[in-house]
Queue: 2 jobs
Job 1
Amino acid sequence: MEEFALIMRHEDGHKVASPEQIQIWMKQTMDWIGGIAALNKFSGGTGLPFEDSRVVRSNNVVTNGPFGEIKETIGGFIVVKADSVDEAVEFAKGCPVLQGEGNSVEVRKIAKGTAPH
């Protein structure tokens, strides 16, 4: 069995949702993750808030947040266990982030092996 990262991308991270809408999305997300965990296929994950974030570029140029010229931002990720990329894609299809127009979930296989020293 392999592990795959499901990376949640939001087309416009600058849009502000109401606290009520955020609560609805959080419940939907927790229910979605709970369904994957019930299959014993959830490995972990987290949200990635915009606060206290920086982008470091070549020549040590540092800018605030995941903003600027990019159209989409990464809102978070989870790691799932799956027998194939197709199974991981099926998990991704249930992600509540897909309710937002232009949002997406990127599915990436996690490389196995030892980290370089």
Job 2
Amino acid sequence: MAKIKIINMMFYGFHGQYEYEREQGQKFYFDVEVTTKNDKVVESDSIEDTINSSTIYSTVKDAVENKKFHLLQALGGHIGDKLIAQNPVVAEVMVRIRKQYVPISGALDYVEVEVVRKAE
């Protein structure tokens, strides 16, 4: 297996449990880790045996900017499922999402969720 990681992508989106979050929007930060089914790419040195990092980036960007989710877990699952469906070499996708502004009365840096999706 081989892993591809993209760390700390930032997109502006309209996701959240409350209506004002989905209307005003905010910045979301993403880490995505994709694991391939095998390590064929190590020997072949061919893009056909892996997933291109620009594909990962554009899939996350599209989901964040063109869809609305109430829960970050659902957004993360959608991204993972889409990457698996689009790329037969993908075995597993881990999506980590950070949101700085949350309706919690207390000091914190951000709330983070992590979703792992596996190919069948």
